[in-house]
Amino acid sequence: MNKTQHYVQGKWTSAIGEGKPSFDAVTGEFIAETSVEGLDIPAILHYGRTKGGEKLRKMTFQERGNMIKSLAMYLTKRKEAFYEISYRTGATRVDSWIDIEGGFGNLYANASLRKLFPNQSYHVEGDPINLSKGGRFMAHHILVPKKGVAIHINAFNFPIWGMLEKCACNWMAGMPAVVLPAPVTAYLTEAVVREIIASNILPEGALQLISGTAKDIFDTIESQDVITFTGSATTGRVLKSHPRILQESVPFTMEADSLNASILGEDAVPGTPEFDLFINQARSEITVKAGQKCTAIRRMIVPEKLMDDVQFALSKSLDKVAIGDPRLKEVRMGALVSKDQVDVLKGRVQELSKSAKIVYGDLEKTNIIGADEKGAFVSPILLREDNPFTNIAVHETEAFGPVSTIMPYKNLDEAIELAQMGKGSLVSSIVTNSDEIAKEYVVNAASHHGRILVLNRENAKQSTGHGSPLPLLVHGGPGRAGGGEEMGGVRGIKHYMQRCAIQGSPTTLTEITGIYQANSAYKEITQHPFQYHWEDIQPGMSLRTHNRTVTDTDIINFANITWDHFYAHTDITSLDGSIFKKRTAHGYFILAAAAGLFVYPNKGPVAANYGLEECRFLRPIYHNDTVYVRLTCKQKVDRDVASAEHPSGIVKWFVEVFDTENELVAVATILTMVQKKQEVFVEMTDEKIVECLNKLTENSKPSWGILTPQHLLEHLEQGYRIMSGEIQDFEIATPEKILDKVHNSLYNYDKFPIGTKFPTMKKDELEDLIHPDFETAKAKFFEAREQYKTFFKENPEAVLKNMVFGEMNKYASYLLERKHLNHHFEQFNIL
């Protein structure tokens, strides 16, 4: 019998004993059974804390982010295989898109957050805090990765998204994960984990999979662990009260199913775009994932006078929903996850129908396309509760499927009260074109909801909808919804880190945080800081400039150039009663003059001015005052480079402007783009090329590939003849949509991958040789290179075609030559 496997302690394994069976939600066919019997849970948790945790904690945020981005790209290329498996859960293509590509989207989104963290393994939070009058005792907060393991207990409805939206956060934080998917859809989670492990992108131990419910997993948890749970509120409360959680004070984040409410604004009457939006959104929330979403609309709160209109319009809209085999294009709603879930759903609907009336759908009859009663199909059900303040079952009982209830309100206060009777939800929405109504609802209802969507005609086409949690927004809610938070951008990552307040001197805290703290000791340097590459710049590096005296003419000229004729700069007869005593220099002149003092004029690693973060003018500077500048590296921030520029990072410089009495008169933080060192490639000078080729003989053997030495020389010769313009009768082979990306790759410091082939080269077969022997080929190589050098010497502005990289100027050709020769010279071990 097939068993869903586990990936634990570095290997795939099957548990012993009988397990819980999983069935195809569409056909009823057996898929696999899940069992956790025999797994050594304490050893699994210890393995994650040590094997995976140690490696992740040492990585910087940039390294973690790029790792997660690479994983997202890897999985995206293999997504179609997951769709085929996902159909077996009863999900349509659209349903599966939310789960599969929504999950990958979480990886991409969290990977991009690396730009908001420092280039180190821990985070510095907030602003520094001065704790003394003298400025020599201060504090800052840092966040470090917890030294435990993140235990994720997930629900059945999103076997991929549920795993990745959590793991993306803990991996970014530097924490490993143990994932426990719900048994009924664990086979889909397993398929994704298999690809993740096969990719070798994550450090071993960063992800372990226990396919099923390990009831004893909490028995050996430790204080550094973090637990997240997604599922029913009842189960969550039981888990949250486990003695070990209380004893070890283990963080427990619960995201529970909730009775989410959507409100139709009083202005959204039939015939308005908002009324139609409400109906369309309601239909979608009932039918997408067959209503098996923790964020689905369970309660529709509509104006009393519009109850019949909503019932009629929504019923008519639901009539258009085709139910059946999710593989069929015409099907808009698939099956529930299992027959057991159908039975549970029917029981809940029967509870609701004791007071509410079923006005659409039939629990015992469903029109099915392409399938039969063996599948877990059920009709959409719409109930009507006309007395929602008296009959409270609708606010307490959730039917987890394609079920929703409409109920009336007389005024907005009643709508707010009804929404709050759900005792806390993940999300609410209000559909209205009135900003006044929207504000009133949001401000008064926000205490009971984790997220509120205001939907109207302006944002409808771009809105992600009521039921779509987003990686950069908090996902969670108060009360019944669990009281926890997931995702939320940087907030989500911080759940897996320990916040610690650090106290000490500014100089010490500069070293600890990696951010220059005001009043810290300066690090004197031997050359101008703009002469250092990004890697060599350190926080605290500082330069004191020469003095400059600000003249009356400077101020007048600046006013004329900028057209800034503020009276303090241009009309000294109007200074009475102002804070100014004499003609005053413009604040931005002081900043510009400061730049004139600290900017290094020669070309160097500083590539560009990147911006200004903060600026404060602390006291006026008058004509004939003299100032100097102290320029200090405040912080370094890594950055991605995808355009035609060399790898670089951002350096934040703390600019302090002093007068001759050493009184601080202005401060600013400026940003510069600073190039990184190129230490990957050897420069291909004439001398270096001769040196390398002197090592190449007719009998030299490559480390990879099938090229012979003569084939190598003839290949390189052809490259030079293309770059010199002698060969141009070809079409560019790289597709237009990726040509810029391929061209820009010349500027990075990544080597050509082993096995890279020129478009015209034969696959696994050598080209016919052109020259009679090796020595002739060598002479022709040097001849072609001289021709290339001469061409660009005589035509420095020329632009020529390259079959792979598109249009190439002189500098791009130089970059290609360097990469190309390094690649092949390494291939033949002559570099």
Automatic annotation (TrEMBL):
Domain of life of the organism encoding this protein: Bacteria
Matching SUPFAM superfamilies: ALDH-like, Thioesterase/thiol ester dehydrase-isomerase
MaoC-like domain sequence ranges: 539-640
One Pfam family named in its UniProt record: Aldedh
Every Aldehyde dehydrogenase domain range: 53-498
Gene3D superfamilies on file: Aldehyde Dehydrogenase, Chain A, domain 1, Aldehyde Dehydrogenase, Chain A, domain 2, Hotdog Thioesterase
Keywords, comma-separated and alphabetical: Hydrolase, Oxidoreductase
Entry annotated with the keyword Metal-binding: no
Single GO term (MF): hydrolase activity
CDD domains from the UniProt entry: ALDH_MaoC-N
Identification of the protein by name: Oxepin-CoA hydrolase/3-oxo-5,6-dehydrosuberyl-CoA semialdehyde dehydrogenase
